[in-house]
Design goal:
Blueprint (H helix, E strand, L loop, with lengths): L2 H29 L20 H4 L7 E6 L15 E2 H13 L2 E7 L7 E2 L7 H7 L2 H8 L2 E2 L10 E4 L5 H4 L4 H13 L2 E5 L22 E2 L4 H7 L3 H4 L4 H7 L3 E2 L9 E4 L2 E4 L5 H11 L11 H15 L1 H14 L6 H13 L3 H15 L3
Parallel strand pairs: 1-3, 1-6, 2-4, 3-5, 6-7, 7-11, 8-9
Antiparallel strand pairs: 10-11
Helix pairs in contact: 3-4, 3-11, 12-13, 12-14, 13-15, 14-15
Length: 365
């Protein structure tokens, strides 16, 4: 056999071995994910009346909160679709409602804003929101920002979604409302890309709202991992812009909950901060948030946060705390996703340890 043929032969053997290894690893990895339990209930049909958080121990009416979503359906000239993130509206909407507040929805243009729905992130509250006739009427007939009466609301909450990067920063009605609320002591809240509403706000004394204010938002690292050319697609990277305007940026671990509260300014890093941002807004308004059942997603975020801060052993102990009480209190798919994210960052040791945590959690099943 000629030298060239030997090279071709061994190259094919190595390639076939690599493919086989990848396939076997994929099969093994998928086996770590527990089967979806057959509860007999299709979560997609969940209605608000089935959520005990909303139907039990009802809190009397306390006022109104304005939620603002983007009207932008495309990321600049990239051709990539966008809109507001449904989970960042639905979960906050029900926190506000459960705590006695009526919620209105506004957008820069008004009418029916574009929405981003990630099926992998959808839970019972999110499907309930889609099946909530009152909530859907408010969304599909969102109030144009120019028609919003600021006096009607006790707080404002800016919903994330990449579209907010394009139509929040330059909207004069948003700027005016934020300035008025901040200076009067009303709460200004925002999550993920929602803090784009803050970047061009000037207070009545001429100073930037963000000067020396501690804030959180979707980070450069989070943005660029998903969209490597984000700096070309967006008018700016949000973390950079907030910092340029004098903010003290409070960055948490990638894709984990981080909330910043600076007086009556409440901001959160990403979609996993939504619950905490909404409840912090309630606290800043002077109320104790209504007790609710913490979600499996939030428990898993706590495990991942412990892993990042204290390491593998402490994360195992956190899993023990949750799973001893309820074996299904951990979202194992979310653990798997974070191991993949670590692999995408070429942090193989971290990816392996997260897979070990996933395997360990399965010992409770």
């Amino acid at each position: 056999m000629s030298g060239k043929r030997k090279i071709i032969k061994w190259s094919l053997i190595v390639f076939a071995g690599l493919i086989t290894t990848i396939v076997l690893f994929g099969v093994w990895f998928m086996s770590l994910l527990p089967p979806i339990p057959e509860s007999g209930k299709d979560i997609k049909t969940t209605s608000p009346s089935e959520l005990s958080y909303l139907t039990e121990d009802i809190i009397p009416y306390r006022g109104k909160i304005l939620a603002v979503v983007t009207s932008t359906d495309q990321m600049g000239s990239s051709g990539k679709s966008t809109g507001y993130e449904l989970t960042e509206l639905s979960r906050a909407y029900y926190v506000f409602q459960a705590n006695g507040f009526q919620v209105d929805v506004a957008s820069p243009k008004g009418g029916n804003p574009p929405v981003v729905i990630d099926d992998g992130d959808m839970k019972d509250f999110d499907y309930a929101f889609l099946n909530d006739a009152t909530a859907q009427a408010k969304v599909t007939h969102s109030i144009p920002m120019k028609d919003v009466d600021p006096k009607e609301y006790e707080a404002v909450y800016f919903v994330g979604g990449k579209g907010a990067m394009f139509d929040f920063p330059e909207n004069e009605h948003i700027q005016s409302l934020v300035m008025a609320y901040y200076e009067s002591g009303k709460v200004v809240g925002a999550v993920c890309h929602g803090p784009a509403a803050l970047v061009n706000v000037t207070l009545s004394d001429g100073s930037p709202l963000l000067a020396n204010r501690t804030v959180s938002s979707f980070t450069n690292e989070e943005e660029l991992l998903l969209i490597p050319d984000a700096a070309e697609i967006f008018p700016f990277l949000l973390q950079d812009k907030l910092t340029e305007n004098g903010a003290q940026f409070n960055e948490g671990f990638m894709y984990l909950n981080r909330v910043s509260k600076d007086g009556n300014l409440v901001t959160g890093q990403n979609p996993w901060s939504t619950w905490a941002v909404a409840e912090t807004i309630i606290e800043q308004m002077g109320y104790t948030p209504k007790e609710r059942t913490i979600t499996t997603e939030e428990n898993t975020i706590s495990v991942l946060g412990m892993f990042e801060a204290e390491g593998y052993s402490k994360a195992k102990m956190t899993i023990d705390q949750f799973c001893t009480m309820d074996t299904m209190s951990i979202d194992r798919e979310l653990l798997a996703v974070h191991s993949i994210v670590a692999a995408m960052q070429f942090d193989l040791l971290k990816a392996v340890n997260l897979i070990r945590l996933l395997s360990y959690s399965n010992g409770y099943l």
